[in-house]
Amino acid sequence: MIFSQSKNLKSTQVQTDAFIKLCKNLVFGIGQPIVEIIYGIRKDTIPYLPILIWGAIFDVLLLSHLDQKMFRFLKLGWFYPQNPVAYSVYSFIGATMGFWIWGAIQTRKKTNMIQRLTEVFQETGLKSPMGKLPNFIFDKPVDELVRRLRVTNAFMSKAKFDESKDRLESSLQVYIDEISESKSSGTVDILYSHFEISKMFEMKDLKSIGKHRFLVGQTRAKTIYSSLTETPHLLIGGQTGGGKSTFLRQVITTLYCNNTDYNFTLIDMKGGLEFQLFENRDRIKVISTPNDSSSQFHVLDQLLTERFELLKVNQCKDIEEFQQKPKDQLKLPEGVKAETFKLNRNIIVIDEAAELFLAGGKINVSQVQEMTRKVIRLAAQGRAVGIHLIVATQKPDSKAISSQIKANLTGIISFPMATLGASFSILGNGRAKELPSIPGRAVWKSGLDQFEVQTAFLSPDQTKAELDKCSPLKEKSVEEATV
C-alpha cells in the first residue's frame, strides 16, 4: 500500500512538472513573439512590405467572403467563427498574421542561438574556473548588417572573451567587430556581423565631409568620421604597404580643401617625397631637412605662447570661444602681431617620426632634444589655440616617439603591424597584428571606442585634381607659409 501511495505521488509529481513545463512553453511561445514584434517595431527591423501585402490580401478575402468558401471547400465550415466576438478575433489575427509569423521566426532563431551558444562556449573553453558558462541575455539588430549579442560574463574578465575572439568567430561563423563589457551589470556585448568589411572603399565626394572633419573609414555598418574638435591630434602607425601614406594623403587633402583658414606644415625627413603633391600650394609649407624642422618648431613654439597670451587677455578658454567673440571686443596683448587675431588653425604633419626624433645621420642629439621638448608642448597645449599634430610612424615605440607626445595623440589609427609588441605600443592590444593583409585595413581608436575599418582610397591623381580645384599650383615656391 505504501508502495502504491509512493507510486501515485511520483505520478502526480510527473504530471505537475509536465503541466508547469507546458505552461512555460505556452507563455514563451505566445509572449516571446510579442516581445520580438515590439522590439522590431521600435528598431524598424520588421519587413513591413510583405506583411502589409498579406494584410491587404486577407482583407480582400474577408470582404469577398472567399475565406468562408475556403473553409467550406476544406470541409472545415463548422470551424468558421459565427459569433461576432470570435469573428473579430479571427479577423484581427488573420490580418496581422504576417507579424505573428515574423515574431515566431525570430523566437525560433533566438532558441537556436541559445542552444548554439551553449555548444560554442563549451567548445571554445569560455567558462569560469568553476565551470560556469555565460548566459544568453539577448541578440538584437544594431542596423541592417550588424547585431549585438549580450551575455553574462560568468565572472570572467573581458580579456578572457578577447582571447576567445577568433574561436568564437570560427564556431559561430560570424565576423566580430567589437567586444565590450559593463562591469556594473556583469555583462559582455559582442558586436558581430555575417558580412565582411568591404576590401575597397573609394572616396568620391570630398566636399560633402564638411569643415573640420575628416574621413576615418568604413565599418560593416557605417562610415566613421572624426574632426579636429573631437580628436585634436592624430597618431598614424603601420608598416610599409599597409595604407598609412594613402590615409595621410587623404586626411591632408580633405582638411586642406574644406577649410580655407587652415595652414599646414608638412615634415618629411626622407626628402619630402611623400608630400610632393602638396608643394607650391597656398597655406602649405613642406619641410625636408632637420635645420628647417628645428626652425619651424621654434616659430610654432613662439606662436603657441602668443596665442595663449591672446586668449588670456580676451578671457577665452580656447580658439572656439575666441572666434565667437565680437571683433570690436577683442584685445591685442602688447608685442603681439595684429595678424594673430586671425587665429587660423595650424596642422603640423610629421611623416616617419622616427627620422625626426632619433639622433644620428642628419640630425644630432641636441636638435632632437630641443624639437622633442617643443613637440611635447604643442601636443599638450596646442588644442586650445588651434595647433594640431598628425604624427605618422612605422615604429610607434617610446624610442621613436616620446610617451609624453603619444599620451596626447588622442586619435589613433593603426594599419597592420608586424609584431604584437608594435601593436601593443600603438593600441595597447594586439589587434593591429591580427589585421588581414588588405591594403587600407586598419583599427581606429578614439577614447574607449575601437573599430576595424577600411580606410578610404584617394589616388595621387585624384589628390592632384582635388588640390588643383581648391588651390592651383603657384608658379614659384615660397619659402614660408603664413602661420
What topology emerges from the helices and strands here?
Layout: H1 2-43, H2 48-63, H3 66-73, H4 84-95, H5 97-124, E1 136-141, E2 146-152, H6 158-163, H7 165-172, E3 175-182, E4 187-193, E5 213-218, E6 223-227, E7 234-237, H8 244-258, E8 262-268, E9 284-287, H9 290-313, H10 319-324, E10 345-351, H11 353-357, H12 365-385, E11 387-393, H13 403-406, E12 411-414, H14 420-427, H15 431-434, E13 441-446, E14 449-454, H16 460-470
Parallel strand pairs: 7-11, 7-12, 8-9, 8-10, 10-11
Antiparallel strand pairs: 1-2, 2-4, 3-4, 5-6, 12-13, 13-14
Helix pairs in contact: 1-5, 5-7, 8-16, 9-12
CATH class of the largest domain, please? Answer: Alpha Beta
* Helix percentage range: 40-55%
**How many domains, as an integer?**
2
CATH superfamily of the largest domain: P-loop containing nucleotide triphosphate hydrolases
